[in-house]
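Appendix B, record 7
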Amino acid sequence: MQILITYADGKRTVFDTGSLKPFGADAMLIECELSLDDVSEGGLWVSIHHYDANSKDATQGETPTALRHRGWRFLLASPDEAEDIIEVLMDGKPVLGRIGDELVKTTVLDARARLLLHNAEALSLIAKIADADGFLTRAEDALLPIDENTTTADFLGIPAETLSAALAADRAQKNLAI
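Structure tokens (predicted):
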């Protein structure tokens, strides 16, 4: 897994777990978890765990079980550094992006957009939010698993203020094209 962080001053930091082999010969699977909650308060962390498989633990005729073992946690960006993050990519895909003052988790938004929009992969973050909002506004209720208490912002996994800012930015960009 490769994590690329781009900062407002142009600095780019790359973290690569591809050559990671800290857990020994029995480690058959590595799990990397990028914590996207409260990055502004606690920083950006990646936790790396492993699953060990040992053939001596296998019972004949049964599929052996590899159990998860806690590994290590690594601070990729401190809370102070997080203030200047523009974007975080994981294996080339955006997982965090800045809209105004807000660092937005894009994972839920991207998943929803791929399900709703024809061209989701080609859209910018702002266009994806605006197009998904437009689709949800026009779609029939029967098509979507949204109850009356769920807002469009909640459904897309973004704060309401971010939805408003993205819609305003999308309108401004479309006005430039006229």
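Remarks on this record: The mean pLDDT is 86. Residues 31 and 49 are 5 Å apart (CA to CA).
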